[in-house]
Amino acid sequence: MWFERSHLSKSLLASRLLVAVKGFVIQSENCNIDLAELWTLSYGAQAAWNVGFRKVVVESGSHSSVQSILKGVSKFHPHFCLTEAIREMLTCD
């Protein structure tokens, strides 16, 4: 994921390097690929927000996860709560 600050005070390269060294690892006992991707997108978006990034460009290899976020899922879908939390983050200013 690459992030851009809406109010850059330093060079974009420095900002990108800062984000590149910040990372996270999530360990789960039982997880499918879509759930892992949704958690990654959720944690990444929250981490970016917490350090002040407001414009975020996200790259994902999971078409189904991206479609779930863009279109939403049924309230009976097993990933409904996580998908809706990500969708809510997208509406934050």
Automatic annotation (TrEMBL):
<protein>
    <recommendedName>
        <fullName>RNase H type-1 domain-containing protein</fullName>
    </recommendedName>
</protein>
<keyword id="KW-0732">Signal</keyword>
<feature type="signal peptide">
    <location>
        <begin position="1"/>
        <end position="23"/>
    </location>
</feature>
<dbReference type="InterPro" id="IPR002156">
    <property type="entry name" value="RNaseH_domain"/>
</dbReference>
<feature type="domain" description="RNase H type-1">
    <location>
        <begin position="30"/>
        <end position="92"/>
    </location>
</feature>
<dbReference type="Pfam" id="PF13456">
    <property type="entry name" value="RVT_3"/>
</dbReference>
